[in-house]
Batch of 3 targets.
Target 1
Amino acid sequence: MMNYRIDASDKAGFSKFPDTTDAFLEYTKAMKSNNTPGGFALGHASGDANSWVHWCLWANGGNVVDKDDKVIINSPETERALNYGQTALCEYDSRHCFLE
């Protein structure tokens, strides 16, 4: 489930919520350009510290542990997720961008 403003999305040129990570980046750019940037709760809502970014990890093929409960967070998929997350953050608010 995703909560979002349909009117702001329509104004930004999106008739439905994006269903790919690439489309989501385009969505965030369009929303920001219309002065209606989106965002995620970070650190102040129940469960944030443990789960708010799992969608990004999973969308990039990563996971925290494998089927045998072996920790596998140190992986190319996690690196890809972190890079995607940083790009998304930079698109949202360049004050938080640490990419060179």
Target 2
Amino acid sequence: MRDRLRDLAREQLRHQSRPVAAVIVEPMPGPPDVIPPPEFLQRAQDIAREFGGVFISDEMITGFGRTGRWFACERSGVTPT
């Protein structure tokens, strides 16, 4: 399922008529007990780089220590650009 979703995102971005400026993600979408696997953000960052966009991690809800780390994206080893 995860690979299908990643491939779907890539396919949609390939057919854009304009360049990709950014990929913006919420590191932990949904209820607080739903934690996506670490590769979720890694794959999102890879897609952003592949299409020349910046990777933005929207940390309004999950940042500032709410996940045990200063920012939720630190759990995945990614650094927003």
Target 3
Amino acid sequence: MKPVQAKTAGTMRKIVDFRLDESLDWVAELECGHEQHVRHNPPFTRAHWVTTPQGRLEHLGQELNCLVCGISERNPVYSDSEG
């Protein structure tokens, strides 16, 4: 089962790791260096796989829609690269 993605313009990036934030919510670390929360919070968000080590392992390499990359690609003013 693939993660559910919002219908917002972004760039698909692979998940390279997971970590817990200070609120004990799971965060996916993406190949681009950005991060995205992955929450299992029914009925709003269904990501039951994130609650187990095996589920997270199985989703390494899956793609999530990185909105930060999408913004910086559409508008260089928001680019996170130094110039």
